[in-house]
Design brief:
The structure is a single chain. This protein is of the alpha+beta class and about 250 residues long. Helix content is about 40%, strand content about 25%. It has helices at about 20-30, 70-85, 130-150, 155-160, 175-185, 200-205, 205-215, 220, 230-240, and strands at about 1-10, 35-40, 40-45, 55-65, 100-105, 110-115, 115-120, 160-165, 190-195, 225-230. The strands form three sheets. Strands 1, 2, 3, 4, 5 and 10 form a six-stranded antiparallel β-sheet that branches. Strands 6-7 form a two-stranded antiparallel sheet. It is globular, with a radius of gyration of 17 Å. The model is unreliable at about 155-195 (pLDDT under 50).
């Protein structure tokens, strides 16, 4: 399987959904094709490039993709998900407001340079709103691996038993999809996988580079604020939608 890292963002309502709820719905849709999803916290960030717009809600996601699915096919699926949550690329302003933006930051170790697809993402190093969430996910993966190693007492052997989460669900309206995202992913069953921690491997060759890029931006210039912790996000979305509330 191929480890994939995605950056998600939203700063515009779609229908009755707030940006946070749209992110929850996007995670639900991505869980249909990605296994072992690991998410970051949600960060509120000032808009870049076109600054006269609402703050963005950003997060990162790491998961595993079947080897038979190429980066181009993933991009096409991402465009379908974006459109389902109200994004119209033909009408939007470049770097302007959008209900949902999903970028492929890394696709395994592949390097792709095409007019409409560049991997790793070409503007990754200047975007604290992507770097900070990605670093958080990396640290989470490393902490979990360390805990497994400590529990087993045998670090090399522990690397051979990595639990990943697989989630599958049926379609529906964007509201229903978002409403089911939390309960579906939270209750997903873990399965043993006799493999290295391939989710973590996506970062093993670029962790220092990510950290250095984030550090070089300077703490004052990052402009990112963690507003919903990763462990609280899906329960938060579930509660919001069950109660019929929307903040925006």
């Amino acid at each position: 399987m191929t480890p994939v890292a995605l950056g998600l963002g939203s700063n515009k309502k779609f229908s009755c959904l707030s940006p946070e709820e749209i992110l929850g719905g996007a995670i639900f849709e991505l869980s249909k094709i990605l296994y072992g999803i690991e998410i970051s916290s949600v960060y509120r960030t000032k808009a870049m490039y076109v600054v006269d717009q609402e703050d963005f809600y950003n997060m990162a996601l790491v998961g595993l993709l079947d080897d038979g699915i190429c980066a181009r096919a993933l991009l096409e699926k991402i465009h379908e998900i974006e459109a389902a949550f109200g994004r119209d690329r033909e009408k939007e302003i470049r770097f302007g407001p959008r209900s949902l933006d999903i970028d492929i930051e890394f696709f395994g170790r592949q390097k792709i340079l095409e007019p409409d697809l560049q991997i790793p993402h070409p503007r990754l190093k200047e975007r604290a709103f992507v770097l900070a969430p990605l670093l958080e996910v990396l640290n989470s993966l490393e902490s979990k691996e360390a805990a497994r190693n400590a529990q087993s007492g045998d670090a090399p052997a522990a690397r051979a038993a990595v639990k990943i989460t697989s989630t599958h669900a049926n379609g529906g309206t964007p509201y229903a999809q978002a409403a089911r995202a939390a309960s579906h992913i939270i209750s997903s069953n873990a399965m043993e996988r006799s493999s290295d921690n391939i989710k973590g491997e996506i970062f093993c060759f670029c962790r220092d580079e990510i950290f250095a890029a984030l550090f070089s931006l300077g703490e004052k210039d990052c402009g990112v604020e963690k507003i919903i912790r990763a462990q609280d996000f899906l329960p938060f979305i579930k509660s919001r939608l069950q109660d019929g509330r929307s903040s925006r």
